[in-house]
């Protein structure tokens, strides 16, 4: 109740309020600084974290890339097998076509030799009782059509890639004339064979045949 005591208490209360105000003011000044410092640190950590992840990802890709290539075959075993079968079939096809063309060349060469060395000389000699046309039928027409067929085959295969060699068209183009020509040749075949047997029983005619056939050798 003493006035002096009252003044002392008021001073204490004033000091307490002043201290609280100073503390609160200090917090307001320091909190933004602490917050900005913390935020900057977080961003720094975030940037470092992203950089670390990027570097790790690149190293991982570099490490895994060779393994991915080594474990990924260019083609599957089934594709390799199918390709090998296709190559063998194409090689066989090329061989067959080559043999076909060569056989036709040899056949034409034999016909040409027979006509020049046997048939024409026998006609020119005009031997009695010797029927040249009956013995050799239409072999000259066979020769002409065979030469035409060879020409078509060569046209279909020369300077043409094997997969593009369509030789069936050659036979289709000459199908009709070949049938007509060989029908005649086959029709007279048995008669020609019988005629040849009769000529071989005649020594004079047999000698003529032997002389011209011998020239073929």
Automatic annotation (TrEMBL):
This is ARH38 factor. One of its GO terms (molecular function) is guanyl-nucleotide exchange factor activity. Pfam families: RhoGEF. Residues 92-217 form the DH domain. Residues 24-84 are annotated as: Disordered. GO terms for cellular component: cytoplasm. The gene is Arhgef38. InterPro entries: DBL_dom_sf, DH_dom, Dynamin-Rho_GEF. Residues 49-62 have a biased composition (Basic and acidic residues).
């Amino acid at each position: 109740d003493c006035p002096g005591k009252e003044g002392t208490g008021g001073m204490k209360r004033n000091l307490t309020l002043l201290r609280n105000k100073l503390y609160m003011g200090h917090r307001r000044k320091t909190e933004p600084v602490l917050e900005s410092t913390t935020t900057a640190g977080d961003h720094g950590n975030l940037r470092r974290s992203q950089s670390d992840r990027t570097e790790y990802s690149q190293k991982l890709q570099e490490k895994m890339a060779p393994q991915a290539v080594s474990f990924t075959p260019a083609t599957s075993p089934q594709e390799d097998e199918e390709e090998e079968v296709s190559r063998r079939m194409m090689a066989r096809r090329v061989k067959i076509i080559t043999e076909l063309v060569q056989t036709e060349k040899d056949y034409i060469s034999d016909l040409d030799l027979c006509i020049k060395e046997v048939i024409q000389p026998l006609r020119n000699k005009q031997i009695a009782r010797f029927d040249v046309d009956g013995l050799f039928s239409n072999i000259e027409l066979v020769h002409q059509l065979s030469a035409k067929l060879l020409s078509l085959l060569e046209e279909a295969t020369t300077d043409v890639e094997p997969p593009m060699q369509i030789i069936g068209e050659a036979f289709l183009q000459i199908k009709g004339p070949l049938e007509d020509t060989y029908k005649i040749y086959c029709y007279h075949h048995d008669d020609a064979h019988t005629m040849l047997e009769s000529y071989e029983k005649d020594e004079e005619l047999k000698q003529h045949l032997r002389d011209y056939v011998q020239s073929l050798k």
